[in-house]
Queue: 4 jobs
Job 1
Amino acid sequence: MRAFAANWVKHMNKLIECVPNFSEGRDMTVMKRITDAIESVDGVSLLDVDPGAATNRTVVTFVGAPQAVLDAAVLAGKVSAALIDMSKHHGEHPRFGAMDVCPLVPIAGVTMEETVAYAHTLAKRLGEEAGLTIYCYENAARSAARRNLADVRCGEYEGLQERLQNPHWAPDFGPAIFQPRSGATAVGARDFLVAYNVNLNTTSSRRANAIAFDVREKGRVRREPDPLIGAIVRDANGEPLWIAGSLPCVKGIGWFIEEFGICQVSMNLTNIAITPAHVAFDEVCEKARARGIRVSGSELVGLIPLNAMLDAGRYFLHKQQRSTGISDAELIKIAVKSMGLDELYPFRPEEKIIEYVLAAKTKRKLLVDLSLKGFVEETAAESPAPGGGSVAATLGALGAALGTMVANLSAHKTGWDARWEEFSDWAERGKACHAELLALVDRDTDAFHAIMATWKMPNQTEQQKALKNAATQDAVLQAITVPFRIMEVALQSMAVASAMVDSGIPASISDAAVGALCGRAAVMGAYLNVRVNSGDLADTAARQDFLERGATLQARAIELEQDILRRVDAVLG
């Protein structure tokens, strides 16, 4: 029964993203009708609508359970085919259809293999229900020749009629005839892609293209070193030879944006674990400088994961030899200013970072988002949660924050410049502790509510009793593992406090000591929760294991606190 419940929850938590690009970026009434159709589907959250007048293209991002996402994508395909006339379309971006591309991206609980299957289902439905001519690309490609979107879209809309007459380029789904209004659509399955444009202080699209060729993975066609002719160099089979660009997993072109009067290097970062945005930015800066051009800023089209922004902030701080153990908000601010992401328009993290957009869509009120006064009053109210576990996590977070503060102050102390990286590492460790402890504040209360929810489960038949018992034991286990994790992380935070007592800025030794006191209190308070909740765990071996390991953690915390206080007393006298 427990396995069935776990599988059911996993199925319910499946989440995929859909990022259709529509060949309309100037008439927002058309786009409003398309996005209204998407939002009409239950279970779908519209995250972002990013139009571009110069490209005459709008990137839409929405997420949801797979079936809901497919339903919304089909509706969007129908509406776009009815409202967008490709025979009248002009724009800077390559395109061949009204709904030009429609990729699916696995977000949670879904493998790439499953996403490919969903993409094929979507492609079939768009062909049959929306009457669109469909090509499958990227991971959903049904042949190697169609994996690369640039190959699928070669010739663009203007060459589509001729291409459809070639049996080799018959569509994967839908009508195999040229449809002047809707053109064709590429449906794919891919990893998370970041659309990223770097702004240049030039109006020469030829020079922008040259920089794009310098950096993009595909590079440029090799030519003879004759400045007048420059004939293409070919292999024995007559195929052009290519000179690879400097950035793997990057596609790029250069173009002029009339709206802003500048050129851009427009890139798709197809694997930001290999080439993240900040690396692409710096590389374009370097290649532009070599051609006498300056980068003035950059632009994100659509959404970006939080970690990508945090990594960028850390990267630029590291170059400045500054501590990276600062708040997420400050890291994001550093990333935005370093890459000039606010040059063309304001960069609003709540609208551009996918985790923040998703969090806003849930509309759930978190304890950690309350004011300090609000949290204290909520704790004092006539409800059993938040209780001791959440308060223990809060104490631990405050203690970890104090240790982090001392590390950051020490990294900036005059005369200690050579030690900045040492203190930055400690600040990173402290930040990781207080970030996780803050998350555990709400997780502890969630664990309590999970137990309460099992009390309301039906208990009439034998099957219902078995399901209720399994759910109760799962909830009890969660109510033990959460405070146990609070113990572990709070103890880790005390190591930061201990190090700062020994080597941190002397004026803040008392702050580090208070951090240690908070950490010890968090460990002991959380252990009380482990002990009281263990009484309801049916697995006696697991219960004994939690109690024994918890006692060991508590003993270590008490011993470390006493050792820290002895060292502080020796300094303070």
Job 2
Amino acid sequence: MIRWIRKQWKSSDWLLYALTGLVTGVLTTTALELWNAKLTVPLTYWGDALATADHFKTVMETGWFTYQPLLGAPYGQTYSDFPTAENLNFMAAGVFGFITRNFMVAMNLYYFAGFITAALTALWLFRRLSISKSVSLVLATLFALAPYHFVRGESHLFLASYYIVPLSIAIVIAAIRGEPLWTKPPLGSKWYRWLTSRAAGTLLILLLTATTETYYAVFFLILIAFAGVVRLIRTGEWRRFWGAAIAGAVTAFALFLNTLPASIYAAINGQDPASLIRARADSEIYALKLSQLILPWAGNRIPLLQHIRELYDQKYPLVSESPALGAIAAIGFIAMFLVIGYVIATAVRPRVHAPHFQERFGLFVQLAALAFVAFLFSTIGGLSTLISFVTSSLRGWNRMSIYIAILCLAAVGIMLDGAIRWLRRKSNKGRITQRVIAFAICACVLAVGYIDQTPSHPSATYPATISAFERDSTWFARIDKVLPAGAEVLQLPYQPFPETVSPTGTQSSDVLIPFLHTTDIRWSGGGIKGRPRADWPGVIEQYSPADIVKLAAASGFSGIHIDRAALEPDQSKKLEQGLAEALGAKPMVSADQRFVFYDIRKARATLRDEFTQSELKKVEAAVVSPVIADTSGTFVSTENADGMTVERSVSPVSPVPLTSANTKPISAQLLGSVTLVGLDISPGRVTVSLPDGTQHVISLIKGHGTISLPIVVPPGVSGVTITVTGATTAKPISIDLGSLVVRERAVTAFLAR
């Protein structure tokens, strides 16, 4: 048996792959302390992990991620408004969902599988680079256990699933070394030659790269462009340059195809103005720094190293997403930069004429050049800033650290192999002793890397996570028993989804929690922000509690669900008291006192007796498809002198877009309040210009005035403009906008009865 194993180890790599997968699986289990976790509960139950769980549940229930009828009631959540190209991950969600039929189990399994697949693809790369088997096993495992993997976790599960990175880097390295990318074997049938060709392998990797993660596809495009240009300048081989150019073009086209459905949706329905908002300055805020890469990561097991990183993140600006390479990869990174300096300083290769050394040193220099280019793009103030002049959609350039990590580990592999060969030559011991020395070196590197890269006490949060998840499951099971299948529930307060934070600090993804624990109730939260069909709860919540009950009931909703954590205590108390008085009944309250539920089906039945069905339909259309006033472009949220949150203008002329999803003009009332800020006295004048061009001067008393104007809003996007003039002091003048809503006459008439 032992003899057979030795023969297999020497003759092929399949045993190496099996051993690497086993070692990575065991070390991942110990690193995450999974024996303390619960498979049916997510490892992370907050933030973007909830959105990830939403995707898994949606794929398993509907077959794909683009539409979820149980969110964004009554219209449903349409994810085409938030363009993404991560389709391979959604396919994986379907596969794991088919295996388990439990979306939380599927998500946990995919996260775990990401460690093993990352190790296997890294092993494949290292073996292609002729790194020894034992060193490849160690470094592949360390790549899978990179700090990046734990920092991303299930919150950024698709970024954590970086198994495509080694495959795409293999294409880049082949291009910079001048290896053909699009050849086929000379022997065999036509189909066999194409299916087993390097061209087929290259095409497959490119398609996977473009389908796995947008950021990784863009990073690959940058590196393949550099590799092709360098090869052309160095050798003048246009054929190799065009091979790299075709690889880039195929990737870009595949990326385009992945985002094409969202583009078609936007062309038909209009571009969503708020779904994907990125500031150009984010490209530097979310970039990386050299010190971040080589310092210990924030979750280091060694208290002193963890403390050093915490001090750095607390005292120095632009923490970004705390990128770090880990000690082993950082050694490779420093070594590559030193080699770049050596090559530049000497402009010659080392005076060692051994062909093997020359070949290894040449590969090392090429890896260093790629890492240097990746660093130039991803560092603060780097070339990514220039890209932000063209597009602000890409902001997380620190995520290129995982590309830098694989390049650094490959460089470490070359150095380790060289060190092991040197020790073997220097020692006069037998072959067994030499193997023991090599094994000891590899074991030490693996041990150091494991201790340095894996988190300290990851299971410390598991009990609280499990408790919170099960507590929420119990709460929403109560609501599920009360309401019939298909019932619609209004969630308050309105939290625009995704990527927003409430004044109390809760994230917009919290609105997904009810959906994750129910199967047939339709929730108003979770619609993609920027369109009236998603933002309408933000309009209805500005009414009095009694009016909210009437409008929600008239719109076909069966309940109102409140998240106290997203409201200030006084706001929550006022809202709850008003709803209870309007309904004449006490609400249900969750065990942790966070959630409150009001059953409004009796109020709905009362309205059916008082109004005709056509009247209620007219009110419903006005409520769930309102005119939305977007103040985000020219007003910023701030606190006034009384500590109240207001919208403050940033210029004397403040246009406010109005979006109407209706096909006909809407007669309504424009309501709001304005307060002049920055004047010792109040000579300023506020003028409101309506879509039809008419202008109205707002009467001010001590700098404060009320907007109450009849308005006709045309279909699509129009707008009003609020202008302040007449300042006579040197102080800047601005406007505090208390609120600005467009209340349709159908709603006004309904509430007046």
Job 3
Amino acid sequence: MSTPAHNYTEDSIKSLDWREHIRLRPGMYIGKLGDGSQPEDGIYVLLKEVIDNCIDEHVMGFGKVIEVEITEDHQVTVRDYGRGVPLGKLMECSAQINTGAKYDSEVFKRSVGLNGVGIKAVNALSTFFEIQAYREKQTRAIEFSQGIVKYDMGKPTACDEPDGTRICFRPDPESFTAHLHYKLDYAREMLRFYSWLNPGLTLKLNGESFKSKDGLRDLIAAKLTEAPQYPVIHLDGTDVEVAFTHGTGYGEEFYTFVNGQHTTQGGTHMAAFREAIVQECREFYKKQFEPSDVRTSIIAAVSVKVQEPIFESQTKTKLGSTHMEPNGRNLRSHIINTVVKELDNYLHKNPDAAKALLERIVANEKERKEISGIQKAARESARKAKVHNKKLRDCRIHLDSKDKQREESTLFITEGDSASGSITKSRDVNTQGVFSLRGKPLNCFGLSRKIVYENEEFYLLANALQIDENIEELRYNKIILATDADVDGMHIRLLMITFFLQFFPELIRAGHMYILQTPLFRVRNKKETFYCYSDTERQRAIHKCGKNAEITRFKGLGEISPDEFKHFIGPKMRLEPVMMPEHKSIKELLTFYMGKNTPDRQAYIVDNLRIEKELDFNEQPGALPEAA
């Protein structure tokens, strides 16, 4: 009789306390960990969890200012001026799971943080966490480290501070990474959204203020990167608020919210709005438009209030609720009925806007029909070329599959065969595909979408991504531009970003596009090898390896062997997200950088020209080049 490898006994059953469980499985509570280089990284979820509590206070009518301070050593302080946590319950609210006031629907009727976990997760995942409440001229504070009490003031003491709560924390490198850092741009964007969702509330980040008067109207105005086809339409019904307009570009752009929570992955409310606007346009204009003709180039914000929202993850980025309230009111039907009713009233009262909307739909329809023949020919050509398409080295798992690794699906877009060869040999064949460009792609600025189907390379790329019609069936979660860090490589990056900005901007808006950071130097001795992405890192490596260090300057991806390359595209891969420009017109931006040479661009180049002094790093290991 064989002996089992592991005995399953009473001793195998373990019970973890709240802090141990959070620290053992942090992904269950805050999603992705990360180092702060991506907006979805866990350290921003910690910040959001703290601010959410302040927002809930404001929504209930208490506190008009929230102050956030983020220091260079990654310490975060958040102070609100609400009612303040009851002093006698300070310990329970910060260190006892499933404890909070939000279970009482009369106290917090439309709250996001319903499970009493958020602040406890921040506490457990911080090397330093202090909570201090001010209430009726009394205060009490408790300090923790990794969820363990380090100091408790005990009895409240007198103070002159206004009512409210102050939370200060420093994320724990043990749970995240030693290189964690807050990007203030991501924190600013978070506070902007809070201000747009809460008109009249002032949020401050290191002294910089964010405040909105017109809410969702201000959001749409800020996100427009081109002149709208008509003034922003604002609809406000029971527990449903919508603002939208159309631009002149391609794709669909949605910003969705539940109880003030930014649901970046949409969900029930976004699907309902997309259905509602098509339904109303068909009824109002008495024509069965194609859904894509109605929605192409739309930019919309949808905000709903739900009494007990159900999210598809602890980080609350996608709404899964089908009902608005415990009494069973159907959420999807309510949103559709509200949008259809309010939009119908608006279009009847505003004939100019109704005319402009119709013109946009008809223009979309005309363009779709113009390229339908080209699409058919391109698809036939792609089918014939698919077997022989040597430019695509596909992976096994894709975003549109049901595999648990679907979020890791990646397509590297490379230049030339040498770089493609290194990545292809060192990639993870399950989740990483490679698309190799022949050279510099066509500059598509100013061209119509027909070029996507007429240019073989562009169409094969769009076909590989599965986005030639829309991005709903996108096959890869990450699209990574992997080019050399030289002039030609930078130019190829610009040309590819131009292609995606021009025809598939929603890919960039949704955070799918990145630039691969590869090391500039390798510094090593007989015992250690360091790969350095900057001169600062190179200097540190030289210091560790000593004066006899061997220093190699990588000038292209093809120079990096496959054995080395696997380190740069593995779990610790360094990526720089491609982000939409804030408050800038896509058309103006592309005209400046990718249009014909203009005096403005020539003047910009002259004013910003720097000369990089070429150095032989092997002969001068301690020297630093001039800033390029």
Job 4
Amino acid sequence: MRLLIITFFLSFGFWVPCFSADRPNVVLVITDDQGYGDLGCNGHPWARTPHLDKLHAEAVALDDYHVAPTCSPTRCGLLTGHWTNRTGVWHTVNGRSMLRENEVTLGQLFKDNGYATGMFGKWHLGDNFPYRPEDRGFTEVYRHGGGGVGQTPDLWDNNYFDGHYWHNGKIVPARGFCSDVFFDFGIRFIKNCAREKKPFFAYICTNAPHGPLHSPQKYMDMYPGRSKAEQAYYGMITNIDDNVGRTRKALTELGLADNTIFIFTTDNGTTVGRNIFNAGMRGSKGSEYDGGHRVPFLLHWPAGKLGQKRSVKTLTSFVDIVPTLLDLCNAKKKPEGLKFDGVSIRTLLYQGDHDEWPERFLITDSQRVRDPIKWRKSAVMSEKWRLINGKELYQIDEDPGQKRNLASRHPEQVEKMRAFYEKWWSELEPTFAQTTEIYLGHKDHPRVSLTSHDWIQEQNPPWNQGHIRRGSGAQGGKHRGHWAVKVVKEGKYSFELRRWPAEADKPINAGLPALPNVPGSSKAFSAIPGKSFDFKTATLRIDGKDVISAPVEGQETSVRLTANLTKGSHRLAPVFQTASGSELGAYYLIVEPSP
């Protein structure tokens, strides 16, 4: 089916202009949990986004552009041109946010075509080899861990201010608000590439305005009379807007603005903004209705004759972006046999909406479960229709709020869209069993740090540091999760079990004091007191069997156990146990070959 769709589009042979702009630079800015309506240029009555409004006045806007309804799934589709469920990324935690190693990212494709590649901020597609951005084609990486600052894979006690981040694999301190810091490093990368006269792809991905809702006070003060949550959320958005302006100014001062494709987009629908202004749409983040996945997309490239305002209302998708950018940049080098689920929308960018563009169906869904469920929170989309969960049918142009279910009036349309979904599901379903596994024993990444964010279990694992401080995670007194790992070299391994991470280096049974809160409406994870325990034993459980145990003594910060691992797939589930036998999974585990 995928091949037929792509062939169909390419066979039309649309005329598009060809320009001499030599290998344009690309800056792709994507924000987190900012909806289509959270911009002044899209109609918000009081959001302050002057720099993005100016960009909108000079750019091509995709005004029926759709992503996944949540974070990681959008990022994988945006970077690979593949449906999220095909890539193994259909959740944000639970071991289902790691991009399968057989996928090729936009970073790798640009690198292979002679570009410098940089990634700054939120990755959320895996924190261990071979899933990290530095393993996927990005040569300059500055990022936090997991899906947000303060999540379990992030460095301990990070909040949105004055944190520590990974810069090309090394932990470095930072001063200032997280979004400012990520843009700082993005701009530094751009300047270095300009100095070296090398084309670049800068992927700048903020964790804001995702919760917890923290913002510099001066940005909160720009919204007097609003609730604390609104002040923090829109304060983060205005801060991002200032950083977009700062980045565009740097490009201009470097003489690079004309031949840089500058893109601004977001990863899913709004959160705080859903009851303020949602552009008439139903639903918000996580929803199968348009408010969950229709988001802004602005593209500006003066040297490519894409420097004037245009609205494209034709249905487009995040899986279209990789083939489109490769097309615009004339980047022809790619692995043999690599095909995309999306298509190049170059003709739409240049010609706008036109009758010759073929009708097509697109699909998005919100799984957020251990294993995908057919029809779960799904939308089959066409120019005119939305089929929701296989049952509800809406004529979107006449009913953008998706209030009038027309399924009983148009059963033939329902069946047509259901049939498309059935073929789509049948193609993807065989890939669901291919679990993404964290490598152990690989020569390029011998020391592996695992966190509870990636436990695979029926319920969501402890994915943020607030959960760790509260001691969350046990179900009925037993540990129900495991890490899926792939041992690439058979032998003896050391397993270092920790309740607190290595950089905290606190005793396993000790509580922790709460740290001072930071500006915003949310309580920082680091401002939650850390619970104490009375664990007596640490046990290494592999493939459902208890292999070795040792006592938890005194002020020990970790318990180190050794065991042999055979080559291949395994399930690791180390636990701490009380005298009564209650268990808590080791939130942190460091594994490395043992001498």
